[in-house]
Amino acid sequence: MKEDYYDILGISKGASEAEIKKAYRKMALKYHPDKNPDNKEAEEKFKKAAEAYEVLSNADKKARYDQFGHQAFEGGGGFGGGGMNMDDIFSQFGDIFGGAFGGGGFSGFGGGGRQRVVKGSNLRIRVKLTLEEVANGVEKKIKVKRKIQAPGTTYKTCDTCNGAGQVTRVTNTILGRMQTATTCPTCSGAGQIIDKKPADADAQGLKVSEETVSVKIPAGVVDGMQLKVTSKGNDAPGNGIAGDLLVAIQEEDHPTLKREGDNLHYDMYVSLPDAVLGTSKEIDTVTGKVRIKIEAGVQSGKILRLRGKGIPSINGYGKGDLLVHVNVWTPKTLSKKQKEFFESMKEDEHFVPKPESSDKSFFEKVKDMFS
Ligand SMILES: [Zn+2]
């Protein structure tokens, strides 16, 4: 059962507009989050009071509420289960406190009021990774020049907005007096300005410091991908929060392996005698060298698939394969003796191509590779 709006504000049903406003003002000051930090109960009361005031201060809504109770706002148009958010509530303040920022209205908040959290700027850096680092993941120590709050900088409440972070402007329009709250131009919404700062600090009380930031890079990252290291960008002045460090991944070319998604390709060249007689060869993988066997009679274009020897999926779903492409190297020049040998083999039945169904055509292999 939802609490009665009049009960929440501690007033009777016949309360006048002025009484409603006064009651809400009292509640808002008492339960304001700045006065009750980390107090969930106070925050709840603060929100409930705001919701009650939102309805009772509006003649039309009040009339509906008086007639139908909470049902009047059910099924859309009401506040549902979520109630009002803090921004709604604070935007209501310009109205309830009559724009009297600093004139007494907000003094009860100890200089608090509606402050915008100022965030420091983000920093961007690029980090080069070898294919092995991409495949195995790596922790990189990166030197970053970031702005930090200079020790010795002190802040004071902004005079323009009295710490509210916003200023209210009243303009006369044909619809009556309009109040608009805008971000304070002096403190950019922070509510604070610099009081004292050391000589080496900039206008915002910040100075550049070189720091080593450790960045954990997961296996499977892709060239161009951006990782975020929270709060390792530039500090914000005063009580703001630091920006983030954005790390762009740049993948270096590998001398023998080519990446394609999570799969890797390796071009292997086999001499004619090795292709005919069979052999074994050492090849590069991202986890070190591996020796693989080449069967006698291997055909050029054959693809050997080494399962799981590719790049781990960034999403954590398994690993790609390493595809070894066999290229039989045909000699371009021969000695007289060798030439005679091949001449004599021209009519030999062993040298006549007899492709088997297992010797897939190039196109079928390509199809197979991507399946
Ligand atoms: Zn200000």
TrEMBL record:
- Gene of this entry: dnaJ
- Cofactor notes: Binds 2 Zn(2+) ions per monomer.
Q: Which cofactor does it need?
A: Zn(2+)
Summarizing the function annotation, the protein's role is: Participates actively in the response to hyperosmotic and heat shock by preventing the aggregation of stress-denatured proteins and by disaggregating proteins, also in an autonomous, DnaK-independent fashion. Unfolded proteins bind initially to DnaJ; upon interaction with the DnaJ-bound protein, DnaK hydrolyzes its bound ATP, resulting in the formation of a stable complex. GrpE releases ADP from DnaK; ATP binding to DnaK triggers the release of the substrate protein, thus completing the reaction cycle.
Superkingdom: Bacteria
Q: Give the matching NCBIfam families.
A: DnaJ_bact, PRK10767.1
HAMAP family on file: DnaJ
> Where does this one sit in the cell?
Cytoplasm
Stored InterPro entries: DnaJ (IPR012724), DnaJ_C (IPR002939), DnaJ_domain (IPR001623), DnaJ_domain_CS (IPR018253), HSP40/DnaJ_pept-bd (IPR008971), HSP_DnaJ_Cys-rich_dom (IPR001305), HSP_DnaJ_Cys-rich_dom_sf (IPR036410), J_dom_sf (IPR036869)
State how it assembles: Homodimer.
Q: Which UniProt keywords apply?
A: Chaperone, Cytoplasm, DNA replication, Metal-binding, Repeat, Stress response, Zinc, Zinc-finger
Q: Does the keyword Chaperone apply?
A: yes
Sites where the protein binds Zn(2+):
C158, C161, C184, C187
Identify the residues that the record assigns to the J domain, covering every copy.
4-69
Annotated CDD domains: DnaJ, DnaJ_C, DnaJ_zf
Any domain commentary?
A: The J domain is necessary and sufficient to stimulate DnaK ATPase activity. Zinc center 1 plays an important role in the autonomous, DnaK-independent chaperone activity of DnaJ. Zinc center 2 is essential for interaction with DnaK and for DnaJ activity.
Could you confirm whether the keyword Chaperone appears in this record?
yes
Q: What is this protein called?
A: Chaperone protein DnaJ
Chief localisation class: cytoplasm
> What SMART domains does the annotation carry?
DnaJ
Member of which family? Belongs to the DnaJ family.
Database matches in Gene3D superfamilies: DnaJ domain, Heat shock protein DnaJ, cysteine-rich domain, Urease metallochaperone UreE, N-terminal domain
